[in-house]
Amino acid sequence: MSFNAAVLYEAGGPLRIESLDLTGLADTDVVVRVRATSLCHTDLEAVRGDLRTPLPMVPGHEAAGVVEWVGKGVTRVALGDHVVTSWNPHCNACFYCRRQQNILCQPYRERAARSFHFDGSPRLMRRGEPVHQLMYSGSFAELCVVSEACAVRVPRDMPFNRACLIGCGVMTGIGAVTNVAQVEAGATVTVIGCGAVGLSAVQGAHLAGAARVIAIDRQRARLELAAALGATHTLRADATLAGAHAELTGARGADYVFEAAGNAAALRASVELVRPGGQVVWLGKLPAEDEMSFRWGALMGEKRIVRSSYGGAQPARDFPALADAYLAGRLKLDEYVTSTIGLADVNAGLARLAAGDDLRAVIEF
Question: Over 90: is that where the pLDDT of 79 sits?
Answer without folding.
Answer: yes
